[in-house]
Amino acid sequence: MAKPKPPSRPSAPKKQTTPAVSTLASNVLAGRVVPNKKQIATLAGAALSNDETKGQSRR
What is the mean pLDDT of the chain? Predict the structure, then answer.
């Protein structure tokens, strides 16, 4: 009789940005848009929320 597999740990869901944030980031990087303060905060928040490493890396 085969041994039952132990339950695997569920992986964290993949983090995704909204289409609006993705389009904004693309336009900013392409130089088509100069972001205002609110857009900068939105892009920074999206970048930080997708960051899987906590804290600062040691140099």
Answer: 84
